[in-house]
# Entry
Amino acid sequence: MQWNIFDIQIRYKHKLFAGFFIILILVLVIFYLFTKNNSNFISTAKSVEHTNEILYQSEQIISAAKDIETGVRGFIINGNETFLEPFYKGKDNVYDAIKKLHIITLDNPTHQKRIDSLDKVIHELIAINTKQIRLKKASPALSEEQFVVLVKGQNLMDSARHITIRTQQEEAKLLVGMYSDNKQSLTITRWLVYILGSVIALLLLLALYLLLKSFNRREKADQLIQELNTGLEKQVLRRTAELEESNKELESFSYSVSHDLRAPLRAIDGYTRALKDDYGDKLDAEGNRLLQVVMKNALKMGSLIDDLLAFSRFGKQSLFKAPINMKELVYGVINDLQVVQPKNAIRFTVQELINVQADSNMIRQVLMNLISNAIKYSGKTEKPVIEIGSFVEGPNIAYYIKDNGVGFDMQYYDKLFGVFQRLHSSKEFEGTGVGLATVKRIITRHDGTIRANSVIGAGATFIFSLPK
Amino acid sequence: MQTNIHNIEVLLVEDSDEDAELVIRSLKKHNLGNNLVHVSDGVEALDFIFARGEFSDRSVGDIPKVILMDLKMPKMDGLQVLKEIKKDDRTKMIPVIMMTSSKEEKDIVDSYQLGVNSFIVKPVGFENFSKAVAEFGMYWLLINQPPKM
# Structure
């Protein structure tokens, strides 16, 4: 279920990412088109201005040429020199305008050629008219020569007008061409923008749809998770209650065991002893031995119950971890055990012991069991030596208890720490088969480990390690 | 069992007749508890101590020298009886020895909190039990001098 949700989310993410990437590219394309269009527009505006300037200067030339003609004609008709005023003015203006026109059409060789010929025509025109003025001043009456010059001036004027009109026409044609080019590119751009805009709008809608879908899915998933969590919480609560219940049952069970199982045993042992005390002399040796067997077994049953209770208690008791002075603890245990078993001269060699954080009560039980085992299984050794020491083992501190007793068969190693598992018969060595199980339980509860190795007849070494 | 219910030395509160017999036996073996009364549960024990019901002809002032009581009993357990005894000014001076089969930490702590004077764990081996009972009996009956009421 969860795997699917993640899978879908990844797919959605990829899709969304791709969609937004495409939109970004399209927006950039549109931006580029607008910028390009704008620069086109600006250059068109400049061209128009340029054309207008050419047209204007051409008009100026024609107008100045007209002034020249008109001024000279007025002077010829009435001989008044004030009529020559437009001639002089036109002369100045026409050169000025030609110069300007020349400058602004430097980029167009056709124009330049035409302007050159216009310049020539204008020069001729001015020369002709200057000649006419001179002729008029020499003879006030219209002479044949004057008439010829007049016609020539007329022709030159026509020629200038013609050249100018050609220039204007050509310029207009150029402008129209540019306009139509621009119009075409504008149309293409407009369509491109329409199409791209539509695509962007569609993609945005698709992205919105995907986002909404993903949100919905997420909402549903959240709801599902919440439902599952609630269910899980309920389950945990129920299980905890069940566990607590069974723990309580177990506790009351062990309490009952400790009380109710021991009472009849006590009676068996007590009454047997009473029988032996009061009537022992009336029984023969065999009778007394039988009573002894009864008592011995009652006691054995008692220690079995004690060991089992300890085993269950160390399993459920909470840990009280505190720094332990291991040396002190080990010596304490050895002393206690020697009081109980003041047997043969066991030599204890206690090496340097590293201190550790653990439940001192429980570790005491571990040492008690392991050292008493070492003592027990060294019972038949001539010179028993028990060595206790410690060493650092990675993140743990390891403690070892080594004896030179009978050892055990490594073949049955997997049974060593099991409950009620014994590798020696009761005839050889007394025992309930719970001690090492208890040890393992305590060490496991400390997140530690226990292991052992042995050679039959040459002793055993038990190593338990606890986290630092 | 003693029929005399006055001037008694030991009040034994024990629901198990066998255990009671064995306790009485070990006390007698050490010449202790000649004048001993055995009651079988907490209610009876309180009746005896406070001279009620069956024991109404007794006087509350006529206190036993020591009470030897089992912790776990039907109807009313040893802890409740102990509480009653230690609550009353007339009886709180009586030494109470609690006997139990278990080494339950909680029982021991609770008993001491309620003012128990001694605590014996009844082992399976009767020999040890007998020794322990005798030692405590000796102390409380012969050595200990109770304050004069």
